[in-house]
Amino acid sequence: MTIKTEPFVINFGPAHPSTHGVFRMRVVLDGEVVLDLEPVYGYLHRGIEKLAEQRTYTGIIPLTDRLDYLAAMSNNLAHCIAVEKLAGIKVPERAEYLRVILAELQRLCSHLIAVGAFLNDSGAFMTPILYMLREREKILDLFEMLSGQRLTYNDMRPGGVSQDAPEEFLPALHKFVDQMPRYLDEYDQLLAKNEILLARSKGVGILSKELAINSSASGPVLRASGVKWDIRKAEPYSIYDRFEFEIPTGTAGDCYDRYLVRMLEMRQSVRIIEQAMKQFPSGEYRSRVPKLIRPPVGEVYSRIEAPKGELAFYIVSDSSIAPYRYHIRGTSLINLTALRDMIVGWKVADLIVIFGSIDICMGEVDR
Amino acid sequence: MGLAIAFWILAIVAIAGALGVVLLKNVFRAALSLILCLLAVAGLFITLSADFLAAVQILIYVGAISVLIILAIMLTREVTQGSPSGRFRIPAFIVAVLFFAVVAYAMVNTNWQIATAPPLEPTTAALAGKLFGEKGFILPLEIASVLLLAAILGAIVLVREK
Amino acid sequence: MEVEKPVESRCFDLQTELDRTEGANTEVLKAKSIAPIPDPDEWLEKSLERNILLTTVDTLVDWARRSALWTVICFPACCAFEFIATAGPRFDISRFGMEIIRASPRQADLMITAGTLTWKMAPQVRRIYDQMAEPKWVIAMGACGCSGGIFASSYSVVPGYNRIVPVDVYVPGCPPRPEALLYGVRMLQNKIAREHVDIKLPFPLTGTKKEG
Amino acid sequence: MTVSLSGTEVAKQIASQFPEAIAESSNQAVVVKTEYLLKVAEFLKNSPDFDFNYLNDMTAADYYDYFEVVFQLSSLNLNHKLMLKTRCYERLKPAVPSVCCLWRGAELMEREIYDLMGITFTGHPNLKRIVLWEGFQGHPLRKDYL
Amino acid sequence: MSSYLNQMLLQHEASVRVPPDWPGGYWFHWLFFTVVIIAFVLTIVMGFIYFERRALGRIQSRLGPNRTGPFGLLQPVADAIKVLLKEDIIPDKADKLVHWLAPIVAFFPVMLIFAVIPFQNGAMLVDLDIGILYIMAVSSVSTIGIFMAGWSSGNKYSLLGAMRAVASVVSYEIPLVLSIIGVILLSGSLSMNQIVIAQNIPFILLQPLGFLLFFISGCAEINRSPFDMLEADSEIVAGFHTEYSGMKFAMFYLVEYAEALAMSAIIATLFLGGWRGPVLPPWLWFIIKIFVVFFLMIWTRSTLPRVRIDQLMALAWKGLFPLALINLFITGVEVLLWPAGLPWLAVLINIVIMVVLLLLWSRFFKLGWGRVEI
Amino acid sequence: MKFERYGIGIARGMMVTFKHLFRHPTVSQYPEQRLNMSRRTRGNELIWNNVKCTGCVTCAKSCPQGAIHIETTVDPATNKYNVLKIEVDTGYCIQCGLCVEACPYEAIYMGYSVERAKYRRGELVQANEMLLASPDRPASGYMNPHIARELPRQTLLVEKIVEKR
Amino acid sequence: MYIGLQHYLILSALLFSIGLYGALAKKNAIVILICIELMLNAVNVAMVGFSRFVVPAQLTGQVFALFIMVVAAAEVAVGVAIIMSLYRHRETIDATKVDLLKW
């Protein structure tokens, strides 16, 4: 029974508890049903692309940290890979392994927050996100041990990593990898089969396979729609071709699938870290690279599979110390293309859940 | 004495509430005013030693009917338009006054057979006996429940999506 | 029960009137806030004499206020996650009675400005600040909160929250570690402890009007 | 492993369909003329040899005398990719046809380019500023913006 | 005629029964219990706030407030002082009178509930014959207050919250009342004290399904999580009290916890045997039981996600309502079978019946799949 | 027959939260119990070594922010730079550590302390003597392994919480 | 001062008249519904009054009052449903505009 009522406009955000930052949605509601939605971006537009044009290739790394601040390592990695491709820099073996470990830890970290925030949005009062934060703290400890910062690491450099891993890094990592699967089990037990969560998220906010591909969705959002596409497999960068892992995919493309895909991906990440730990070589951690990199004239489009999806940098070089044009493919922004199609027709409560299931990071949406 | 004070207070509140219903421009406030009136009437029931009825009055009128009416007000969004009076304001007023005059005249001049027996208290068990017991109102009760059912069905049919 | 089908027509298409007014607001605020708002720091000098004059009421009320700082939601960027980590199980801001994060500014006392402020966001932050009920405090968290940080030279970033709202405590760091934030919070608590309470009416019946 | 298609090879195939469409081609990229952009894009998307069903990225760069709009196309089925470019020599009111009708993903990217670079995309369903506020003067990513 | 009046007055006063063992007169009793109830509600509400924050903290693997006073015990006091002294804002768009009245309208009914709750045998403000009916009647009034608050604020979030409140309360009153009727059938009285006295076997054992239904619908009635639709933080900011600050907000905060206290007290009285218990004094038993019930509420709050409003309604109408009717029917049959009081055998039967019914209901109504409710 | 219905999923979730009631909380109570930060912590300040510094301004050049201001004069006797003024705005610095990495003489370090909140914006600007190392301003081992070795071992949550199930 | 049956009856009549005026004069359908509730309530007062003063031991009037409440509840359910339906089709709840006997 729907009672016809007058639609009214309501503003979600920019400072709303569950818009993951400063996202804003102008929503037309008919009672509780969303009739139309217009996302308003730009409340965190900081002009990173413009700033990057005035900085050296090393000086950009702190900027990339603040892109997707939940996955700063992945951003660092993507930037460094792009610069290495552009300038033809070789990376030593040890650095490659360290990078893979860091990137996968970062994926765990980001997915933990994504899942926790999603569950928090669906109304589980703070508990899941606090459990996940606890796990995240363990990862942050490792990052901190390596780079000295908790959130913005500035750890990778073109040609390796800035510092070698200290000797206590591997034992700590070992312990973490031992513990993590059990905690993941616990999270599954906590809410994965919860009836209310199923009722809230199954079949809600369906993104069809065709629409997902057509709207350039990537990462878990794309995979939850049933597309088996992961750049780590499709175009293995760094040394991802040496590891065995699977690409979890969903079937329906609903919120629950997106949640599940992330949970499964975390297990795969742990698997990759285990393998990388076993093969971890010794040797140089950074190749000899001039302090001011001057890549030859040219352009590069280099992409990696960041936690939120395909993160790519398009760099045009004019052989000066700063890039001529520095473009970032904002994963989160492009994942939001189909937002309206996913939300319209659902209720206000679903709006929050669907939005939370996409897992965006405002720093990357607005850049 | 206590009863008299209670009666006068409650009566005045009830009348004020009723006047609020017809005089207030804002529909939402009119509904709130109705609630006030209903509460006062529930109080009057207590002065009449009908405690069960008072509770039922609050439960049904305040808890259900008023909330339903407020829901209707909200859903139709006619709050801002207010509740204007129609063309029949003056005739309605005359009719109401005439009605009151006639009825009041009749009431004052009728010699009611006031019984001096004490009222039954508590009324709950007695009411149940009256409703369900022998020689009670069991048939009207059944009819009333059928009426309720019919009303619910009717309401659902009316507002169902076509 | 069927959910209504998505409507075909977009209600918002090319509706730029709203955007234009909001853009104009932004420009007005940008023009207004050229110089930083001076820090509310007069109390630092007066601290000595105040200490003697503190009354019991002052002590009690200040104690209550500093033990129950409820934060409003104003978390634009990176620092938000350090704030969440502070609220998280390891640092646990709830020990100070601060875990209640009110989404409604009316009920909050403290604004922790976690993240870069852009000019587009500035009117909203100002509005949140205006909507908060007195007494209210602001902690500028992180380099972006203090000065705009790494983005200070950008075309769209406000160089520091003190252009928009008066800031009580500056916490440097990019982002500050939870310890640093907790230190800042404790500094704010020290500040509140020295404040003189000015109660106008114990039962404010009418209340002051604020822009809705 | 994703195959990066050679621009010259692709250019030949495009030229067999649209002889005048190619402006320039290198090993890395194909540059098509603006007026042929939609046709070429449609061909690339629908032809079974290319099947570029996925638009990775879309951006623009300012080279003072022209704007270059860069498309990164890839095919999820065939696992190859291509860099497609088009150039726009108009400085004051640059305009490029929108590819939103082919790839929905272009919607936000085009809005972003419009906002930051000032290139109008004709046929875009909702072309207005995305990250900056209405009334912002200039387009920051242009090289002449200070 | 005056003799008649005297007679009536005498009767009226006699009707409000003073417990036989109670010293002092009628007015003393009245005054004493009014003070006791207010003090009780305020203290326990503060205790609840502290208890909830600490328990939530422990469940979420952190500590909770522990700085303010010993073990953080003074935290609610600090909160209260702070909130009371905050600036009181009335938005321009608000309907001033209604905005001002709303917290009061929401507050008083909750306090009135405690008039009929027995703290000991006969230790209550007034032992009404229609006790439980009175509670139901009075508690429905505070919805009006919530609705007034939401409507008068002139804020869309508030309005949404208020709409949700009304919709959910209208639906949940029915299973709430229906699940009580089983208890009333067993005890044969509406009076709260009589219900406690009748519980030789706590009714939670004789009425497990009734308890479950009452707990769920009670949580929904007082908007505790997972049914806290009307102030869902992540959806509609703070719901109906978005625009409230200062003292009025404190009142709503108080109402929220006082309602939880009332619901815990009712559950403790109806299902857990109220003040009855060995060794410890009765009032302590009562308070312990209240806290046990409240811990259940905290526990569900910390674990479960929020349900959606239509799922909430569907749960009420398709799940709880039929189950409550069936429960009523079964209880009726049992009362007819054992007119002298239910034996322990009935406990087993009732638990089996509950499990079977729950399994059946879960099978009938698929959970999940968004659009298909329940 | 799937078992995620019948409320079993809810019950399992409730058990998880119930178990947590009896686990040791993860909290470190900050002002009294402090975590040992990483040896490479990049604290919220810069430490300047006026002995080692030659005034080459590499740090200021490598700073992506331009947060370091150095004024130098040339000492004609030794033909070396003489640092007149070095000024760092802590509120502007983002602790990226690039200056430390760039300094060829190891004359600039990241600080180890993070508690540098101030009541005034102006107090965040540090200059000359304020930048020197002192017991209050220990240097961190970022990019300087020899300092790192002497710092306390980092507290790790992984080691603190080991729950058996 | 003695409060007798006539007090209650007069009060009931007064409430009824107010309700009557409202029901006749108002245009808003919901207000008309509210006024009808008011009239039913007035009758209830009279019923209970009679019950109390005329047959205090029998409660017949209270039983009638209960029935009236049932009727009122049913009436409100149907009334609100009609108003909803009306509003959905006609976008108005002005009773004077609903005179075409069709929608």
Structure description:
The structure holds seven protein chains of seven kinds. Helices cover 38% and strands 9% of the residues of chain C. Chain C is α/β, with parallel strands linked by helices and 212 residues long. Chain C has a five-stranded parallel sheet with strand order 2-1-3-4-5. Chain C is globular, with a radius of gyration of 20 Å. Chain D is an alpha/beta fold. Chain D has three helices and eight strands, in the order E-H-E-E-H-E-E-E-E-H-E. Chain D has a domain at 3-92: Beta Polymerase, domain 2. Chain E is an all-alpha fold. Chain E contains 14 helices and one strand. In chain E, helix 11 packs across helix 12 (282-303). With 165 residues, chain F is α+β, with helices and mostly antiparallel strands. Chain F has a single domain (34-162), classed as 2-Layer Sandwich (Alpha-Beta Plaits), CATH 3.30.70. In chain F, strands 2-3-5 form a three-stranded antiparallel sheet, with no helix packed on it. In chain F, strands 1-4 form a two-stranded antiparallel sheet. At the B-G interface, helix 1, helix 2, helix 3, helix 4 and helix 5 of B face helix 1, helix 2 and helix 3 of G. Strand 6 of chain C pairs parallel with strand 1 of chain E, so a sheet runs across the interface.
Helix content of chain G: over 70%
Major sheet description of chain G? none
CATH class of chain G: Mainly Alpha
CATH hierarchy: architecture of the largest domain in chain B:
Up-down Bundle
Helix content of chain B: over 70%
User: What name does the CATH topology of the largest domain in chain B carry?
Assistant: Four Helix Bundle (Hemerythrin (Met), subunit A)
**Helix/strand structural class of chain G:** mainly alpha
User: Which structural class fits the helix and strand makeup of chain B?
Assistant: mainly alpha
Distance between the termini of chain B: 59 Å
Overall mean pLDDT of chain B stands at 81
Provide the domain count of chain G: 1
- Strand-and-helix sequence of chain B, N→C? HHHHHH
State the main characteristics:
heteroheptamer, D: 146 residues, alpha/beta, Beta Polymerase, domain 2, 6-stranded mixed beta sheet, two-stranded parallel sheet, 3 helices, 23% helix, 29% strand, globular, G: 103 residues, mainly alpha, Helix Hairpins, 75% helix, elongated
